[in-house]
């Protein structure tokens, strides 16, 4: 267990959470400001290793659901978070011993930290994705049999909706509909689990990863070391099962955005300038899903793709990409649990309409 | 009178110098440079009298005066002349987890105070109100603010770009109990993003007392010289606003300095797409000119340590200028990053000083004939070459960072420090050194156009084309209202940002229209 006490750590975590968002998950800026305000008021989040949980501990995921455009206007309400905690404990009939993020990539890395800090509940060092995904059912929790519901949803006006569905996929549809009906931003508790389940089903230590990623980038900048190299120093650690490679360095020559059925689709083309034709392409469906070099796949979901500002290594979300930016693209291995066949059936390439099998980034890049 | 025949006075009131040019159509009639003074009006009078004298003109023959100034941004960055501000946010039951001014630098809070008020009201993205406007709470806040003796109020409500009327009603409630309140509405200074927009409103509020003083001082100064022509101010995007508007919204002028420099450089060379490099005494600022306007930053921007969603020219500053100090030996030469700055004229070797600067090296290399070249004779050829290698290398690297493709681009050099460069620059197609480059800022002010902007959600259910047409019409109407000549208005920017994670037809659309300043009677 450790405690986050400095604003610098919070900013580092937010930066790291953007990188793990693989382009999606929403800008954690709102969550970052919330935590900085909590620290200023003397409260600090406590981060707990899953192994430190008692097997019979009761753990839930806290998440915001909504659109990035809406959260930057509606922000987050302390009142709502506290009421959500109260309503959840009363609904589940148990005191919540720890909170966990379902999605460490993007803004949902921050809400469990926000409520945990506020209410003095520890936050588990891990999550259910190790990245960001567009759907509620796309978690290791869900793949290994934990139900996303029963669940309590709440908006800032006091509307409360209890959801109990037969499958996690249906839960996703119902939650999304409730969200739209309530102004496109709600908060909810999902995936009620025992401490024993958390130990088995979690992508471990990802809260610490957000901190470490952000910190490596910041420290490299401060010491005038290439910050992309700085962060690769952490991400690429084969002895710990992590692999990362710089895939490309160039300028964005085209960004295509469109929304289909509420999802952000797009494609970004990057060129080194050495040739007329763009050499590198990243396909987007809310997140960066597949990166191709001269048409050859070099990283594919659930492995992560990070697009970083070429100078500062600031990770860029899909919304931030613009023509002319100089960027460097990094491919990063998903946690081993995420790459198992049963997981690929829930969030592998074909689930996103990509007619390709998953292959690990380290294999595809080695064979270049 | 057609605009081509009118005489326009363009002025740049900078931190160090006040520059003035008189232009007639595309012709520069005369230019002058004087020191900026503590009361900016005095420096303005000196520069204007000098330029009128050089042009042999009477003040009455000027048709329009355009001023660009960095006074407001400098004041905010240096935390001087700012007033305490009250932040009133109409958003409850939402947003209470992040009160106003979270994350602001402590030194700034110390000056403007932490006076936040959250009251009920606000709108969903689709314009429906999620809570009624709590006028009783607003009146209570208004009374409290009045009791504290604070006049400047920044008022922000949720989704103000969609429902600007909520902020207007809230302002009425405050004014009903605090008639002296000077209120900035967030919807008037920013787009979507409540925190960034609220920050912009707060910055603006803190500058209002100063803007009233500075604008009055400049207007009175012109009056004292006998100029009766209408006065306009340059804003961030290189277009003009009225004196009334500049007084109410000083934040819109915050980066007019670099914008005017980039636009002035474009005008002086007739080039529409290029990198503009302003080499001053302490820094070199590079901007990118696209279709005659500065390229703007795509991401959130910090002003004096505060995040806003104001779009600013994308300017890269490197610590290299004519006053940059040179240390070391030929094998290991170091440039700066410190500069002798405005003391160049006393501290550089060629001016009898003791510090070796980049200017001394340029003189030794025969690139400039200033000061006493005899004082740098002893500088060896090897160190001169090493310094020139380093200068050109740094400039080339900066150019490369600004470029969007490997294709060579033209570079326009302005600012007094351009004597540092003598060799061809890698990655450039041509290097232009236009006449009057030292007053490019004032020229940029003199040629400014007027603009109208729209940044809000549009419902594409009526069809994308129709919705975009509606957005363009609104931007054109705003440009017209700002004084543009109807026939000259064109749309220079159009961005669509669809809402993700929602099944909705609402799309955020940003449009900018610009036009020539219409005939002024």
Structure description:
The complex is a heterodimer of chains A (368) and B (521). Chain A is α+β, with helices and mostly antiparallel strands. Helices cover 33% and strands 27% of the residues of chain A. Chain A has 12 helices and 17 strands. Chain A has helices at residues 7-20, 29-40, 68-74, 78-92, 110-119, 140-143, 168-181, 195-201, 206-222, 227-235, 341-347, 361-366, and strands at 2-3, 46-48, 58-66, 98-100, 123-124, 126-127, 151-154, 160-163, 185-194, 203-204, 244-260, 263-271, 280-285, 287-293, 296-300, 304-309, 326-332. In chain A, the strands form 4 sheets. A 7-stranded antiparallel sheet of chain A has the order 15-14-13-12-11-17-16. Chain A has a 5-stranded mixed sheet with strand order 4-3-9-7-8. Chain A has a 3-stranded mixed sheet with strand order 1-2-5. The radius of gyration of chain A is 19 Å and the shape is globular. The mean pLDDT of chain A is 94. By secondary structure, chain B is α/β, with parallel strands linked by helices. Chain B has 14 helices and 25 strands. Chain B has helices at residues 40-55, 71-77, 106-112, 135-147, 164-177, 186-189, 194-225, 243-248, 256-269, 344-347, 358-364, 381-402, 440-446, 464-481, and strands at 7-13, 17-24, 27-35, 62-69, 85-92, 115-120, 122-123, 129-131, 152-157, 182-185, 231-234, 239-242, 274-279, 284-290, 293-294, 301-303, 306-308, 316-318, 324-329, 332-339, 409-414, 428-432, 449-459, 490-498, 506-515. In chain B, the strands form 6 sheets. In chain B, strands 3-2-1-4-11-12-23-25-24 form a 9-stranded mixed sheet, with helices on both faces. In chain B, a hairpin with a 3-residue loop joins strand 1 and strand 2 (17-24). In chain B, helix 2 crosses helix 7, helix 4 (135-147) packs across helix 5 and helix 9 packs across helix 13. The N and C termini of chain B lie close together (9 Å). The model of chain B has no long low-confidence stretch (mean pLDDT 89).
């Amino acid at each position: 267990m450790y405690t986050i006490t400095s604003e610098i750590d919070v900013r580092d975590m937010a930066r790291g959470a953007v990188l793990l968002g693989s382009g999606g998950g929403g800008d954690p800026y709102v969550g970052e400001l919330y935590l900085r305000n909590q620290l200023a008021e003397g409260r600090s989040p406590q981060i707990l290793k899953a192994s430190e949980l008692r097997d019979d501990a009761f753990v839930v995921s806290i998440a915001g659901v909504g659109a990035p455009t809406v959260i930057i206007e509606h922000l987050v309400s302390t009142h709502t978070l506290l009421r959500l905690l109260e309503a959840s404990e009363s609904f589940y009939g148990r005191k919540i011993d720890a909170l966990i993020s379902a999605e460490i990539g993007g803004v949902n890395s921050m809400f469990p930290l926000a409520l945990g800090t506020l209410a003095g509940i520890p936050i588990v060092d891990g999550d259910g994705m190790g990245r960001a995904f567009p759907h509620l059912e796309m978690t290791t929790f869900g793949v290994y049999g934990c139900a996303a519901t029963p669940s309590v949803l709440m908006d800032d006006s006091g509307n409360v909706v209890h959801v109990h569905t037969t499958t996690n996929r249906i839960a996703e549809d119902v939650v999304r509909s409730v969200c739209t009906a309530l102004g496109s931003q709600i908060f909810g508790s999902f995936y009620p689990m025992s401490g024993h389940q958390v130990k088995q089903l979690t992508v471990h230590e990802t809260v610490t990863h957000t901190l470490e990623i952000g910190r490596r980038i910041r420290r490299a900048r401060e010491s005038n070391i290439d910050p992309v190299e700085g962060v690769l120093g952490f991400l690429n650690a084969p002895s710990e099962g992590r692999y990362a490679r710089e895939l490309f360095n160039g300028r964005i020559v085209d960004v295509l955005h469109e929304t289909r059925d509420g999802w952000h689709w797009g494609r970004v083309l990057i060129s080194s300038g050495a040739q007329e034709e763009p050499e590198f392409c990243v396909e987007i469906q809310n997140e960066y899903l597949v990166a191709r070099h001269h048409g050859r796949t070099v990283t594919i979901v659930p492995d992560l793709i990070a697009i970083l500002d070429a100078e500062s290594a600031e990770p860029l979300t899909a919304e931030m990409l613009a023509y002319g930016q100089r960027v460097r693209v990094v491919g990063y291995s998903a946690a081993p649990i995420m790459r198992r066949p049963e997981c690929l059936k829930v969030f592998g390439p074909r689930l996103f309409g990509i007619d390709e099998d998953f292959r690990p980034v380290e294999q595809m890049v080695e064979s270049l | 009178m057609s605009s081509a025949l009118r005489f326009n006075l363009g002025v740049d009131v900078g931190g160090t110098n006040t520059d003035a040019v008189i232009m007639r159509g595309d012709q520069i009639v005369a230019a002058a440079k004087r020191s900026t003074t503590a009361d900016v009006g005095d420096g303005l009078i000196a520069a204007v009298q000098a330029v009128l004298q050089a042009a042999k003109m009477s003040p009455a023959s000027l048709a329009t005066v355009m001023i660009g100034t960095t006074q407001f941004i400098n004041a905010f960055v240096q935390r001087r002349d700012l007033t305490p501000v009250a932040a009133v946010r109409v958003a409850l039951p939402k947003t209470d987890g992040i009160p106003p001014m979270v994350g602001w630098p402590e030194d700034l809070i110390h000056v403007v105070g932490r006076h936040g008020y959250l009251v009920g009201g606000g709108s969903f993205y689709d314009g429906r109100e999620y809570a009624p406007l709590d006028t009783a709470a607003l009146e209570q806040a208004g009374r409290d603010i009045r009791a504290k003796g604070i006049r400047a109020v920044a008022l922000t409500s949720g989704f103000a770009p969609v429902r600007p009327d909520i902020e207007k009603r809230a302002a009425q409630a405050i004014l009903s109990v605090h008639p002296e309140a000077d209120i900035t509405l967030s919807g008037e200074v920013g787009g979507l993003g409540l925190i960034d927009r609220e920050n912009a409103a707060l910055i603006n509020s803190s500058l209002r007392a100063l803007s009233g003083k500075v604008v009055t001082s400049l207007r009175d100064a012109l009056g004292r010289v006998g100029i009766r022509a209408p006065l306009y101010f340059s804003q961030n995007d290189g277009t003009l606003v009225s004196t009334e508007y500049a007084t109410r919204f000083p934040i819109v002028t915050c980066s007019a300095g670099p914008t005017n420099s980039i636009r002035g450089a474009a005008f002086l060379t007739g080039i529409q797409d290029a990198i503009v490099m302003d080499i001053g005494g302490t820094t070199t600022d590079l901007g990118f000119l696209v279709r005659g306007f500065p390229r703007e930053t795509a991401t959130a921007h910090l002003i004096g340590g505060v995040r806003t969603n104001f779009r600013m020219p994308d300017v890269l500053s490197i610590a290299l200028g004519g006053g940059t100090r040179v240390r070391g030996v030929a094998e290991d030469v170091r440039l700066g990053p410190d500069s002798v700055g405005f003391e160049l004229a006393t501290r550089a070797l060629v001016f009898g000083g003791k510090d070796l600067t980049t200017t001394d090296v340029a003189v030794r290399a025969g690139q400039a004939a200033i000061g006493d070249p005899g004082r740098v004779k002893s500088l060896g050829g090897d160190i001169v070459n090493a310094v020139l290698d380093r200068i050109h290398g740094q400039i080339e690297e900066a150019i490369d960072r600004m470029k969007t493709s490997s294709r060579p681009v033209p570079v326009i050099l302005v600012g007094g420090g351009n004597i540092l460069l003598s060799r061809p620059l890698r990655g450039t197609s041509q290097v232009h050194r236009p006449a009057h480059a030292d007053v490019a800022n004032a020229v940029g002010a003199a040629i400014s156009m007027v603009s109208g902007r729209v940044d809000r959600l549009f419902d594409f259910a009526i069809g994308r084309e129709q919705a975009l047409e509606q957005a363009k019409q609104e931007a054109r109407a705003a440009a017209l209202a700002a004084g543009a000549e109807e026939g000259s208005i064109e749309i220079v920017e159009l961005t669509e940002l669809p809402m993700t994670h929602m099944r909705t037809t609402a799309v955020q659309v940003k449009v900018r229209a610009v036009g020539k300043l219409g005939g002024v009677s």
